[in-house]
Amino acid sequence: MIDWTWVLGIAGLLLVVLLVGTWLSWTAQRLNRLHHRLEMARGSLDTQLLRRSGAAVELATSGALDPARSLLLVDTAHAARSVEDGDVEAVESDLSQALRAVFPDAEEVRELRASPETGPLVAELAGACRKVELARRFHNDVVTSTRALRSRRRVRWLHLEGRAAEPVTVDLDDAPPPALLED
Amino acid sequence: MRVGLVCPYSLDVPGGVQNHVKDLAEALLGLGHEVSVLAPSEHESGLPSYVVPAGGAVPVPFNGSVARLAFGPVAATRVRRWLKEGRFDVLHLHEPAAPSVSLLALWACDCPVVATFHSSNARSRAMSASKSILRPSLEKITARIAVSEYARSTLVQHMGGEPVIIPNGVYVDRFATAAVRDDWRGEGPTLAFVGRIDEPRKGLPLLLQAFPRIAERFPGTRLLVVGGGDEEAARRRVPGSLAQDVVFLGRVSDEEKASALRTADLYVAPNTGGESFGIVLIEAMAAGTPVLASDIPAFRRVLGEGEYGATFRNEDVDDLARAAISVLGDGEDRDARREAARVAVARYDWSSVAGRIVQVYETVVDTDRAGVR
């Protein structure tokens, strides 16, 4: 004679274990996907930052600007390009500040845009400035979502995040020169 | 670039989000991108060639009003098939927190996702009560766009982060060159109102109350009312002697709406709230028509705090009548604002707005390539 209470009890327990397991593995998958997206977003931000400093160097060496401004741009852009794991945020903020100082005049930017030599360079720089702004926001958005999920109890207690480091937002001054945005 | 756009609301009925999606699709096609739009629709034919119907929509109460949405197994299958056949570089969803095809596409896709949030309801129950249902899906969004400062703060309040603001677009030329309909003009100045006439938030009752005072100061003033709803009830609010001066045009085509705005000497927006952006204000500005609007925050912002159009105290009939009379009487001030408005609308033109949206696409597609490398 089988004791059905026992059988049902064990079956119920197994079901609960299965459901909890599925739920946890689904959470781990979400976390994994977020960490992957985080890497891609960081890669995109780095690409856009490189494009921006590259465009700044090109414009500075094109001969279209006076030597003082060219020198300032080359100097800050070069510092931004050669920074080694140091303070990326500080040197990139410096570049943003230098760009705003170099292009204060909307009228002049319009002339640079109209010229066939400098036009494409200005357009490239303006596009890169906008995309740095976008890429940084998108990166920080993923950081926010990832941190929200990582702070859940089930994730902390079971170390579902594995060895992935706690993500941090990138905080830098990326405001483009207003004169460059007139397109 | 291959772009997939998803609109959650039925294309069979007009609406702000629907128009935005169609205009954006046309602007992107004009820039040489490949575009496919997935949207609920009853009809298989008669749609623009870039639209793929996602099946019939059901009217359901959602977020404080009745919306026509599509969900269920048929819609889910069509969404998956559309995604598979489209092989999109980027998927651009509109209002992904609405229980319709945008959310289904988000669930099923595995390409970079851009999402535009239109609504600015501070107590969006869809977003707060169901956060735990929505969060895993919304995590898949790579880039978030809000159409206005108000849509942005709603989004930040519920989900945090830093959404980008890119305003709604308008084809400025369509309004600037719309036909002027002399047959709609009266003896005196012409006013225009646009919006559902039986929705109190659109504010038609306020304008109808102020109308006799405006007509007293400027005899022969005519009011063009553009928008569907219960005309009989609205008519009863107008004194019999002025009945022939209030013309109900009903629901009209986009061309006729543009003509009404361009024909008018003053566009009045007496909306009492719930507006996130105020696209009609931009349309009136594009048509070169002076604007008078209630001083709700969204409108004040669009009007540059009074630089591009006049405002009156919200829900204040006396102030509405006073402001309308003052604008109609002072030609110099009006022309200065109209000229400032003409310049200001350029940034809302689709040529500029679509360019900014494409920059977002390029940023997220780069993100994806960076991952492959």
The helical percent of chain A reads over 70%
Number of domains of chain A: 1
Averaged pLDDT of chain B:
87
Gross geometry of chain A: rod-shaped
Main sheet attributes: strand count, strand direction, barrel closure of chain B: 7 strands, parallel
**SSE order of chain B:** EHEEEEHEHEHHEHEHEHEHEHEHEHEHHH
Distance between the termini of chain B: 19 Å
Over all CA atoms, what is the radius of gyration of chain B? 21 Å
Oligomer: heterodimer
Number of strands of chain B: 15
Chain pair sharing the greatest interface: A-B, 29 and 28 residues
Question: Which descriptor suits the 3D outline of chain B?
Answer: elongated
Proportion of residues in extended strands of chain B: 15-25%
- Percent helix of chain B, as a range, is 40-55%
Keywords:
A: about 180 residues, mainly alpha, 6 helices, about 0% strand, rod-shaped, B: about 375 residues, alpha/beta, Rossmann fold, 2 domains, 7-stranded parallel beta sheet, 6-stranded parallel beta sheet, 15 helices, about 40% helix
How would the blueprint of this fold be written?
The complex is a heterodimer of chains A (183) and B (373).
Chain A: H1 4-60, H2 67-82, H3 88-102, H4 106-114, H5 119-150, H6 153-158
Chain B: E1 2-6, H1 16-30, E2 34-39, E3 51-53, E4 58-62, E5 65-69, H2 73-86, E6 90-94, H3 101-108, E7 113-117, H4 125-128, H5 131-138, E8 143-146, H6 149-159, E9 164-165, H7 172-176, E10 190-194, H8 204-217, E11 222-226, H9 231-235, E12 246-250, H10 254-263, E13 266-269, H11 279-286, E14 291-294, H12 297-302, E15 310-312, H13 317-329, H14 331-344, H15 350-372
Parallel strand pairs in B: 1-2, 1-6, 2-3, 6-7, 7-8, 8-9, 10-11, 10-13, 11-12, 13-14, 14-15
Antiparallel strand pairs in B: 4-5
Helix pairs in contact in B: 1-15, 2-3, 8-13
